[in-house]
Design a protein that fits this description.
Number of helices: 8
Structural class: mainly alpha
Distance between the termini: 123 Å
Mean pLDDT: 83
Strand content: under 5%
Number of domains: 1
Length: 222
């Protein structure tokens, strides 16, 4: 007598997919935002060259050397470095650098606009002459962290190298050029940082003088 045919046991499983950690979701969201803003940031940095022209033409009252150093430094690390090192674009130093760049510009440009209309609120003036104490060093550190990551890649892939023979009869080793550039930025950064402190001191003295004038005029009217 044949044994009765039985159906195979059904396997029970949980069809509900595993939920990703909240921290992981937030990281992915922030990462995607910075990736989407990449082209916008690069475009805005190109337009930053206009700042040099504004200083030369006297449209903006500022020193040429610090403006030149900031514009060239940022465009160099972004347009000459990061654009040619895709793997470094995933480094945590990129959002750190862009974040502190952005905060500094969100303070600086509204301050310039308010100054043009002679209606600058005190808190914006305070931010303009105090926030740089934290923003500049961290932004500068983030730039050099990225250079540390990019230099070996540039040397291995010979990015921006010009080898002989060529039509110009000239060879160029970008790796050594970048090392010289980074060394110069380290040497010039303290000077630029102290320059901002000198502007801060001048602004404080100006505010103190204005307060004394107001106090004198108030006493005269009594």
């Amino acid at each position: 007598m044949e044994a009765p045919i039985t159906s195979p046991p059904t396997l029970k499983y949980n069809a509900t997919p595993k939920r990703k950690p909240i921290l992981g979701k937030r990281y992915i969201m922030i990462y995607n935002v910075f990736q989407a803003l990449g082209s916008i940031i690069c475009t805005l940095q190109v337009f930053a060259f206009l700042e040099i022209l504004h200083v030369v033409l006297g449209i903006v009252k500022s020193s040429l050397a610090p403006t030149l150093a900031q514009v060239l430094g940022r465009n160099h690390v972004l347009l000459v470095g990061l654009l040619y090192c895709p793997t470094v674009q995933f480094h945590w130093g990129v959002p750190l650098m862009v974040f502190f760049w952005g905060i500094s510009e969100l303070i600086r440009f509204p301050y310039y606009i308010a100054q043009a209309y002679n209606e600058c609120p005190p808190f914006l003036t305070w931010l303009r002459y105090n926030a740089f104490i934290v923003l500049y060093p961290i932004g500068f550190a983030a730039e050099n962290i990225l250079w540390y990551e990019m230099l070996p890649i540039m040397l291995e892939d010979r990015i921006h190298f010009l080898d002989m023979p060529n039509w110009f009869n000239f060879s160029f080793n970008y790796y050594y050029f970048a090392l010289i550039w980074i060394t110069l930025t380290f040497l010039l950064f303290p000077k630029q940082y102290l320059y901002m402190f000198s502007l801060r001191k001048k602004k404080q003295q100006q505010a103190l003088a204005e307060a004394e004038d107001m106090s004198r005029s108030a006493k005269k009217t009594k």
